[in-house]
Amino acid sequence: MQDNTTTRQISIIAAVARNRAIGFKNQLLYWLPNDLKRFKQLTTGHTIIMGRKTFESLPKGALPNRRNIVLSRTISNPEEHSDPRFPGCDCFVSLQEALDHCRADEDIYIIGGASVYKQAMSVATRLLLTEIDDTPAEADVFFPRYDDWVEVNREEHQRDEKHEYEYAFVEYEPHPRPLSKRRGE
């Protein structure tokens, strides 16, 4: 298959604390009902790509109404892109192999974990982050730095009875690359 990563929408979606913390002991750090609702709304009907540990953290396995792709270095049936450990999922050994098996018009959401996020930063077309106004006492997994991305939209939310912290839904796009100078300029 040809590489269509430049024509498709590849979104990285995550909830991040002020220090970029995203998890502790293979669990999310925050329970934010509006974030979960947004995640479901954005990803339903599309393709989600995750690492093995992220899949293992899902309480009911593969997420419904989405094409689930799991990345794992060891797959029991690589020719069929399947593994009984990941029911309902396509399985690939690398992010690039997974992307190569996606259609050019497929909307793809990278949902974790940290190493998959890091790999995806160079091919993503946008970041869809929930930025939580907190620094957790304990965290062992962090989102990659994204200082060089450009914020294009922000929706602020205050604390309420269901949300312990202030948070914002923030969309970023890659920083525009400077055009190389043409000869003679």
What's the rounded overall pLDDT mean?
91
* Rg on CA atoms, Å: 17 Å
Question: Tally the helices: what do you get?
Answer: 4
Taken as a percent bin, the fraction of beta residues is 25-35%
Largest sheet: 8 strands, mixed
Instruction: Give the end-to-end Cα distance, rounded to a whole number of Å.
Output: 39 Å
Number-wise, the strands total 11
The arrangement of helices and strands along the chain is EEEHEHEEHEHEEEE
The neighbouring-strand order within the major sheet is 6-5-4-7-1-8-11-10
Shape: globular
Poorly predicted spans: 1-6, 181-185
Helix content: 10-25%
Global structural class: alpha/beta
Feature tags:
185 residues, alpha/beta, eight-stranded mixed β-sheet, three-stranded antiparallel β-sheet, 4 helices, disordered N terminus, disordered C terminus
